[in-house]
Every structure is written in C-alpha cells, then in structure tokens.
Specification:
The chain has 380 residues and is of the alpha+beta class. It is 34% helix and 20% strand. It is built from 11 helices and 19 strands. α10 runs antiparallel to α11.
C-alpha cells in the first residue's frame, strides 16, 4: 500500500508548473493524503473563530503545515504527527496565514491550488493576502492519483461492503408490513453503526412505489410518515463508511407477494446489472459503453424510459466520483477503478426495482464487492 507519506510525495511531484502553494481544508482530499478523517457532517455549520484556515498548507517541496482553530485542535482529535499550528480564540487568522505564506516563500501572483469544496471565505481571505493570486483545483490534480484504487483501498471498500450487507441482513429481520419509511431508514442507520460504520456514507434513502404508494423523490417529510402496506416495492439505497472510504448499495424488497409484473421488472434489473458487470472490462471498455450494455437489457424488455438515470459512478473516498457510467463519458475503463452499477426501473404508480453494488474493473469484466440477495426478498 502507498503510505500517506508516499501519497503526499506523489501529489507534490505533480505540482511543479501547476501550483506554487496548496491549501487543502479538512475534507476528502486531506483524508486521502494524510489520514486525518473528516467527521460526521452537520446540517448547519459549526463555526469557530478563524475556521477559514482550518486545513493543510504545502508547496511542491515543503509541507504539510496543519493550521487548526483551538476548538478543532482540542475537541476534534485532529493533528497527529504533523507540523501543527493552533490558532487561539482571540488570535488573528490573517496574521497566522501571512506568517505561513512568508515561511513558504509564496510571492505575489502565486497559483494556489485548493480543494473543490473549499470555503469561499478561504479564497477571499487568501485573495487579500496574496496580490494577484490565481486559484487552481487541487482536487483535479489529486484525481490523477485517486481514480485508481490500490489493493489495500479495494480491501477497505470490500470490508465496507461486508458491513453494509451485515447491516442489511439485520434490517431485513426487522421489516414488517405497516412500518413507516422513517422507521426503516432509522433501522438502516442504526444497523450500519452497530456493525462498525461511522454512519451512513450519504443520506439513507428508501424509494417506495405500488398501486397505493405513488413514487415520490426528494419529499422526505411527506414520504417518511407513510405506512407501507402491501403491496408495495421497497427500494433501498445506502452504504457504510470505513476508514475514510464510502460504500453504496441497493436492493429491492416486496411487501406482500409480488405480482408477475413485479417479478419481471426485478428480473430485468438484475440481468441489466449482470450485463453491466460483464462489460466493465479494463482497457477494453469505455464508461458510455458499459452504460449502453446494461441499458440495452432494460430497453429490450420494454422499460427503457423507466431507467431514469446513469448506470453508475466511480466511488471510493467520495460517494460520487468521476468518471461516470453514462452516455457521453468516453473515458476508458482502467483496472482498479471502482464503479457502482445500479440499474433501476422506477415507475410512478406501480412497482419499481433497483439494485446496486460496487464493482472493481478488471480485464475480464467487473469484480463485485457485494453479491448477496440476488433474488427478490419478500416480506409477508
């Protein structure tokens, strides 16, 4: 495995001619480079004095210097074996930042690379401190390293998949006709943590549809209270977090005995996924070609318009990473890339079906990291 120090060195080797200074806030990019894990996200922001300089500063030949507000350093368990500079609650963050810029030899007109999700406040403050500064994307540079997962990263994501499936197995034991969507979502999140995840890798979602349950997207305050009475299809979308990496998983459950139509669309979705996995051939396939292979199965079954989204996305340190398995993405699939393959048939007033697993691209086709529940699960 490339150690964090080796990752940092590889990243710094990519910087000459592209950036004079890098500022990476706490987040995915810093997690990948240093192992300083980000925490469970909040709905509202937790602001600390000088929070805009919370992160790491480095150059092509120096770093990282980690700057932290006192509250983050003291209560956030951040720091470790780094050159850590702590900003007191009453200290001036601009003075600390100016000192670091001088120490690192950053001159007027410097190119500063930062993460794509850096706070605008950080860029505004740096603009005031570095005359003529130009900004670049450190995330884009890092993707050259992040896109191919090492054997150790694959092993971590495989274990995250095991946690995800273990959680799902225990969720299934708790399912009862008449439960609300909120009860199911809460059970999923509890089981993820019980089995070793920091929490869900994204907001756990359950998409439900049936003759008495119109499919609704993005209206959680309306769908969460609904009691799921048979017959209804329950479509899971969730994943675990492990050591900074994110899993993404989906299966379909039938509340009540499934109709022939329901069984047919579930069969089509599973066949579509198998076609996508087989097509994920490193060095031979493009992202749009993999999407096309899986989509053709559902189109041949007469449900093309009900497959409403791309086939999948790269995944790893973020839930959604480029490249994407979609029309128009001509990226050649390379060995060690990991994608979700998640075909679906979503219908408004009748049964829907979806499946999702993380798949490693190999020369002979994809290697699934999770394989359970290939048949439709029925709760009666």
């Amino acid at each position: 495995m490339a150690s964090y120090a080796e990752r940092m060195s590889a990243f710094q080797a990519l910087l000459p001619g592209r950036a004079d200074l890098v500022f990476i806030p706490l987040g995915t990019d810093l997690d990948y480079l240093t192992g300083i894990h980000r925490d469970i996200p909040n709905w509202g922001r937790n602001l600390h004095p000088g929070g805009w300089l919370e992160g790491a500063w480095l150059t092509p030949d120096r770093g990282p210097i980690l700057t932290l507000p006192r509250m983050t350093a003291e209560f956030g368990a951040k720091g470790g074996a780094f050159d850590v500079r702590v900003l007191g609650d009453w200290d001036d963050p601009a003075v600390m930042a100016a000192g670091i810029l001088k120490e690192l030899g950053v001159a007027s007109g410097a190119v500063v690379a930062t993460s794509d999700d850096a706070e605008a406040e950080s860029l505004i403050e740096l603009q005031a401190l570095i005359p003529g500064v130009r900004f670049a994307s450190a995330t884009r540079i890092l993707r050259e390293l992040r896109v191919i997962k090492s054997p150790e990263e694959i092993a971590t994501l495989r274990e995250a998949g095991r946690i995800t499936e273990a959680a799902f197995a225990d969720v299934l034991k708790m399912l009862k006709i008449g439960m609300t969507e909120l009860e199911i979502v809460s059970e999923v999140d509890f089981q993820l943590r019980r089995h070793g995840s920091l929490g869900p890798s994204f907001t756990t979602s359950v998409y439900n549809s049936g003759p008495n349950h119109p499919l609704m997207f993005g209206k959680r305050m309306e769908t969460w209270p609904r009691k799921l009475t048979a017959p209804v299809s329950v479509n899971f979308d969730f994943g675990a977090v492990l050591d900074g990496m994110c899993y993404d998983f989906g299966r379909t459950v039938s509340f009540g005995a499934p109709t022939a139509d329901f069984l047919n669309i579930h069969r089509l979705v599973m066949e579509s996924q198998r076609a996508g996995i087989a097509a994920l051939k490193a060095g031979a396939a493009t992202c749009e070609g993999v999407d096309r292979a899986a989509r053709a199965v559902i189109e041949a079954g007469g449900h093309g318009p009900d497959f409403r989204h791309r086939l999948g996305h790269a995944i790893g340190w973020d839930v959604h990473e480029p490249p994407f398995l979609t029309k128009g993405d001509a990226t050649t699939v390379r060995e060690g890339m990991i994608f979700t393959i998640e075909p679906s048939i979503f219908r408004m007033n009748t049964f829907s079906a979806r499946v999702e697993d993380c798949i490693v691209a190999r020369p002979g086709g994809g290697e699934p990291l999770t394989k359970g529940w290939q048949e439709l699960t029925v709760i009666e």
